[in-house]
Structures are given as C-alpha cells and as structure tokens.
Design a protein that fits this description.
- By secondary structure, the protein is an alpha/beta fold.
- It has 2 domains: 1-111, 2-Layer Sandwich (Transcription Regulator spoIIAA), CATH 3.30.750; 112-303, Heat Shock Protein 90.
- It has helices at residues 14-21, 47-62, 78-84, 87-90, 106-110, 132-144, 150-171, 202-213, 215-218, 222-232, 244-254, and strands at 2-6, 11-12, 34-39, 44-45, 66-71, 96-98, 117-123, 178-185, 190-196, 258-263, 266-273, 276-286, 295-301.
- A hairpin with a 2-residue loop joins strand 11 and strand 12 (276-286).
- It starts with a strand and ends with a strand.
- Mean pLDDT is 82; it is low at 236-243.
C-alpha cells in the first residue's frame, strides 16, 4: 500500500504539516511500503516543518520504505527554497525526487550569504560540530545588531542553541543524524530556531529513570512532565544535569518565544506566561502519526 500525503498550496509550518499527516494512519504505519509526498504549485515550507520532514523522510528510508517527493512547481517553488536551505544535501540518496534533485546544491553556492538564514546543519550524535553554535548565534546577531538589547539577546541565543543541540546528545541514543536550522522572517518580525533528531525522545529516556528516582513525577501525564522539564530542569541524569532546557526556556520567555515540542506520537505547544511555561497555557495533540525522536522549535517575537 501507498501512503499519499498532498500538502496545501500555501505556507506549511509545523501545525499545517501535522494536519496533513493525520489524514491517514501515518507513513510509518506497517501497512505502507511506499510513501508519496506532493508539494503543489503555491506550496512553501517554513523552516520548522522542513527539518521535521527531513527527519521523517530519512526515517522512512531507514525502514526500507520507498519514498517519493513530488514538487509540482519544480525549482521555482518549494523545491528551490528547500534546496537553498540545504535540504537535499542531507536527504537520503535513496529517496526519489520529482522532477529531479537540483544538479548543484543552492546551499553550497550561496551558503552563509543570507544573514537571515542558517542553512540546515547536520548534527552527528557521535561528533560535535564546534562551529555550529557560532554560526547560529552569528546569524541572529547580524539580523538583530541594531537592537538596543543585542548583547543580551546574543547571550540568550547562545544558551538556547547550546541546550537544544546538547539535548540530541543527551536523549537521542541513535546513529541517525539530527538537524538544526534558523530563519528570520522579517515580515512577521519573528525568528524560528528548529532542532530535530530521530532518537528515542525525551520521554523515552526520562520516564524509565523517573520510575526509580522520582516516583511522584513518573505519575504525571506527558504534558505535565514536559512542562516540568522546562520549568524545573528534570533530567534522567540527576538534578545537576537537568537545568539546560530550563535555562533555555527561561531566556526564551524574555522574548515571548512560543515553544513547539514534537515527540513520537505527541505534540505540545507552549505559550509563555508571567510565570513561564505552564500546563494551563499548553495545547496538547495526542495520538499523532509516528515520527521518531524529539523535534523542538522556538518562535521568537522580535518586536
């Protein structure tokens, strides 16, 4: 059987992506041996959706499913933007692209020339790219250097980027690469930072440890526990190792950042309040089609 997903002829963000993935059992379902994804004329992909789709497509290839991506508008549409951000540089060579993969990578030609974009970077769980943090933070500062609080923003950005990337090394337990990217959207005066991995996920590694170390926390729902991770710094490695995501969240709140966390079958959207991210400001979507790993993006308001 074939899993067919046709995206709409408009901008696709993470929310839109989820809506169209939920039209069936999901491409990871064992009933499907093939998966076809269609990007029609007028379709455009935002960076948070792009890195999640990249992870999903490569996961399906690992599962030996035949994957086909159809771009009706060719390189003048969604395909061209994905090429510019380096999407095809990281896409498995086994995946079929129609009409054809770009002959030369747009990211290789123009990489680093757009101050509003950090092209998709591979995060190898076995090897740390020490330049990635500098590139992500540098891109943000080039876009926001006129702000009076630029120095403070730079420090906050460094912390957030570092912890999101470190989370891959702490929780992924996979040999599959993770990805990170950044895009400034001037018209919306917002900045999106996206990090994606294909590992066990935060809950998959945290819950087994909590059952022995913190039984009271193990009784929390996934949403409640996820909020506590960002509020209290819960970690399977002990309290001294759990402050990273808490610290990044605290800094993100200062810039009214919306937080989107996608786990294997669960997605939680968190809006900042006066006391940080809280369960009563969380929107939870459960029983989602399977996507391995943890996928996080912050959407910063730069007003």
């Amino acid at each position: 059987m074939i899993c067919n997903v046709e995206f709409p002829a408009k901008w696709i963000d993470s929310s839109t992506m989820e809506i169209y993935l939920r039209t069936g059992p999901g491409p990871h379902d064992n009933s499907f041996s093939n998966a076809k994804f269609v990007f029609p004329i007028g379709c455009k992909v935002m960076i948070d959706a792009a890195v999640r789709l990249l992870s999903l497509f490569n996961q399906l290839d690992i599962c030996q499913k035949r994957v086909q991506l159809v771009f009706d508008e060719g390189e003048s549409g969604a395909m061209g933007y994905l090429d510019r951000m380096g999407f095809f540089d990281h896409l498995s060579k086994n995946i079929e692209v129609i009409p054809a993969r770009p002959f030369v990578s747009g990211a290789e030609i123009y990489g680093g020339t757009n101050t509003s974009l950090v092209e998709i970077a591979r995060i190898n769980p076995k090897f740390r790219d020490e330049t990635l943090l500098t590139r992500l933070t540098g891109a943000l500062m080039r876009s926001c250097c006129e702000r009076p609080d630029a120095d403070e923003l730079e420090g906050a950005a460094w912390t957030i980027f570092a912890e999101l990337i470190d989370n891959i090394f702490s929780h992924s337990e996979t040999s599959i690469d993770g990805y990170a990217a950044l895009q400034l959207y001037p018209r919306g005066n917002s900045l999106r930072v996206a990090v994606s991995d294909s590992g066990l996920g935060i809950m998959g590694t945290l819950r087994p440890a909590l059952e022995n170390e913190s039984p009271s926390l193990s009784n929390l729902s996934d949403v409640e526990l996820l909020v506590e991770i960002f509020k209290q710094g819960i970690s399977r490695h002990g309290s001294d190792r759990g402050c990273g995501l808490k610290g990044s969240a605290a800094k993100a709140i200062k810039y009214r950042a919306q937080l989107d966390v996608r786990l294997p079958n669960l997605r939680v959207l968190l809006s900042p309040g006066k006391e940080g991210y809280r369960p009563n400001t969380a929107y939870c979507y459960e029983s989602l089609p399977l996507i391995w790993g943890t996928h996080i993006y912050f959407d910063f308001s730069l007003d």
